[in-house]
Every structure is written in C-alpha cells, then in structure tokens.
C-alpha cells in the first residue's frame, strides 16, 4: 500500500486504523495456499515466513482462512479492497454501522476505530467463524456485537443504520438492507465478482441508487451454495453444433479488457467463458451452465469460426452485447450503477435516468467467467 500510494486521501483515518490493527492480529494460526491443484495448509508455527507472505506480500490478495469440502468458504479480505470499500462507505464518528459477514473480525474492528465504541453490529452465518471472531475482537474492539444469522435479513433489532457494508458478493441486493438504512445512508457491497457499489438510500426510503466504486472480488453469499456447477464439458456433453459462422472480432480482449468483461457480466450475468491462446490464435469456450454452449476457434489461416449449440445462441449473444457496449463508447466499470426498489432492481450505464438498463432477477449468484 505504501509503495503504490494507494491510501485514500479523503479518509486518512483508514491508514491510521490499519497501522493500529494490522491483518496478522486477526489471522488464524492456519491459512491455506493454492498450490495449482488444491489448497494446502500453511501453519504459522511450521512456516512463519510463508504464513506472513500470505498476509503481507500482496495487498490485492485475500488470505484463505477456511476450507470446506476442498473449497474456500472464508477468508481474510485483501487489504487493498478493504481500504477501498471503507473509503467508499464515507464513515463518520458516531455512525451506526451494520456489517454483513464478520469473517475474522478485522473489517469490523477497523470500522469501529472510526465510529467509536458500541456503534458496530456484525452478522455472521457460520457459528464457528462468528465465535472465533468474537473471541478475537474481545482483545481489540470489545464493544462490537457479533450476531449469528443470515446477512440477507440484516439485523432489524438495531436498525436503522447510517451505514451497511457487506463482505461477501451478491448479485441481487436484499431489500432488508435498504429498509434498515436511514434515508441518506450508504450501503457498500461487492456486486458479483468484479466491482463494489455504493448505494445511497433516497430521502423517502423507497429506493436506493449508486455507482460502481472500484474493484472487489469476494466470496459469494453462503446461502447460494458453494457446490460444483456444470462447466463447459458437462453442458456440451456430446452435442454437435447447430450453427457455424465466421467470427469477426478479436477474442483477446475477453481475457484482458476488464471493462468489457464487466459490461458482459452486467448484461448477461449467466454467460460463462474461458479464453486461451494456442498456435492458431485466440479461442473461447462459452456456456450458460444449462444447455447452451459455443466454441469460438481460430483456424490458423487468419479466420475464426464460431460453433454453437443448444437453445440459446451464445456466440451471437456475445457478439450482440459486445457490439452494444462498443456503440455506447466502451464505457468503463465506473460508468455503471444500480437502482434498488422493493419490487425490482436494475443496472444502468452512463446515466441512472436515461441510460440503458438491465433488470436483475433474484437468484443464485453467478460465479463469473
């Protein structure tokens, strides 16, 4: 953070809080490292250097703190994104704060440094994680109240709140979050897997609106489940393509252009894809985790062929959404936002009133590309 000059100018309190409460004070004795095949334990007593590297070597990397059935289910959020989201929260002394997803307790402790004692409530679904965080917070922020429960329900007993912050990713914002926030209050959360949003509750409390603020990659809401979902091979099976055509776009931006990737996710959150380069050029494999798939393959002679099967023409859909984004001027992620009302919510680009809209349906979180 120091080398990058990434501390927010408008919130110097965050830097002071992180210095007073560094990540290692909230890290468990065992962390987990991905070795390319599986997650392996890294114990502080056995590998103190490796344990510390997982915490401090990269401010943009989370440290996995819990593995369930081979998959990460809890982590110590990466410092860079924690700082950015606290900055987006516009937190002031005396604010009443609800945190959704206690995790290690670090984020709640940082927030409490700003609000003052007795102003932060944190909800954690996993009883074991919650108890561990509660014990850890006793040493650093004993006035934080950790409650067990489903974060999508908020914590109505202590509402209304001036600020709500979620530490897990959602596609569909629970209305309870808006209903439990004061008019003019702010709600900050990871939206899907590519960015975080800050909503401001309207003066009449009947809606909330806000723009994408920055990057965020968090684990999804636990209520959506963490089990394996169909990949390209399972969706395609032995199916033959129903349609083939020449593909006229360069595929490489699907891997490297994060603004394009964000736009695709906003417009078609159920579209999954993998991109790779071989000796013939760039290729892409698309699927919808259901029955539709497409392969966009370089032929080695300068041409690329799109083959697709299933009820939805995913190559055509990709081409359409990509073209619409280009016609809008290729806006970056900060040109997008979200509006939430009791009965619907929609994403928009460029302008919340006049820009294009994409309506969201409540449902499981799509894991991304």
UniProtKB/TrEMBL annotation:
Q: Which Gene3D superfamilies match?
A: Vaccinia Virus protein VP39
Q: Name one GO molecular function term.
A: protein-L-isoaspartate (D-aspartate) O-methyltransferase activity
Q: Which InterPro entries match?
A: PCMT, SAM-dependent_MTases_sf
Q: Which UniProt keywords apply?
A: Cytoplasm, Methyltransferase, S-adenosyl-L-methionine, Transferase
Q: Where in or outside the cell?
A: Cytoplasm
Q: Cite a single GO BP annotation.
A: methylation
Q: Which domain of life is it from?
A: Bacteria
What residue range is the signal peptide?
A: none
Could you state one GO cellular component term attached to this entry?
cytoplasm
Cite a single Pfam family from the UniProt record: PCMT
**Which residues, by range, are in coiled-coil regions?**
none
The catalytic activity of this protein is classed by the Enzyme Commission as: 2.1.1.77
* PANTHER family tied to this protein: PROTEIN-L-ISOASPARTATE O-METHYLTRANSFERASE, PROTEIN-L-ISOASPARTATE(D-ASPARTATE) O-METHYLTRANSFERASE
Family membership, please give it.
Answer: Belongs to the methyltransferase superfamily. L-isoaspartyl/D-aspartyl protein methyltransferase family.
What is the name attached to this protein's record? Protein-L-isoaspartate O-methyltransferase
- Species per Swiss-Prot/TrEMBL record: Streptomyces tsukubensis (strain DSM 42081 / NBRC 108919 / NRRL 18488 / 9993)
């Amino acid at each position: 953070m120091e080398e990058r000059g990434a501390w927010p100018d408008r919130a110097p309190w965050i830097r002071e809080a992180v210095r007073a409460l560094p990540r290692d004070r909230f890290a468990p004795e065992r962390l987990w490292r991905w070795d390319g095949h599986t997650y392996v334990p890294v114990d502080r007593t056995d590998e103190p250097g490796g344990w510390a590297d997982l915490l401090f070597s990269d401010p943009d990397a989370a440290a996995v703190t819990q593995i369930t059935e081979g998959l990460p289910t809890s982590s110590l959020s990466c410092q860079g994104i924690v700082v950015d989201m606290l900055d987006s929260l516009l937190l002031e002394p005396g604010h009443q704060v609800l945190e959704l997803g206690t995790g290690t307790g670090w984020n709640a402790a940082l927030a409490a440094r700003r609000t003052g004692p007795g102003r932060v409530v944190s909800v954690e679904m996993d009883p074991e994680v919650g108890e561990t965080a509660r014990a850890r917070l006793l040493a650093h922020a004993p006035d934080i109240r950790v409650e067990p429960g489903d974060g999508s329900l908020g914590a109505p007993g202590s509402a209304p709140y001036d600020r709500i912050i979620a530490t897990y990713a959602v596609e569909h914002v629970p209305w309870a979050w808006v209903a439990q926030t004061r008019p003019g209050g702010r709600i900050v959360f990871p939206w899907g897997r590519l960015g975080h949003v800050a909503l401001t509750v309207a003066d009449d409390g009947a809606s909330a609106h806000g723009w994408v603020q920055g990057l965020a990659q968090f684990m999804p809401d636990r209520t959506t489940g963490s089990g394996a979902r169909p990949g390209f091979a399972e969706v395609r099976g032995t199916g033959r393509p129903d349609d083939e055509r020449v593909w006229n776009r360069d595929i490489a931006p699907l891997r490297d252009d994060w603004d394009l990737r964000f736009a695709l996710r906003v417009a078609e959150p159920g579209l999954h894809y993998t991109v790779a380069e071989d000796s013939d050029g760039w290729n892409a494999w698309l699927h919808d985790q259901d029955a539709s798939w497409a392969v966009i393959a370089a032929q080695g002679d300068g041409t690329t062929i799109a083959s697709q099967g299933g009820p939805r023409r995913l190559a055509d859909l990709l081409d359409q959404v990509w073209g619409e984004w280009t016609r809008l001027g290729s806006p970056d992620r900060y040109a997008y936002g979200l509006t939430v009302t009791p009965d619907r919510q929609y994403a928009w680009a460029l302008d919340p009133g006049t820009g294009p809209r994409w309506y969201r349906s409540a449902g499981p979180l799509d894991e991304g590309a």
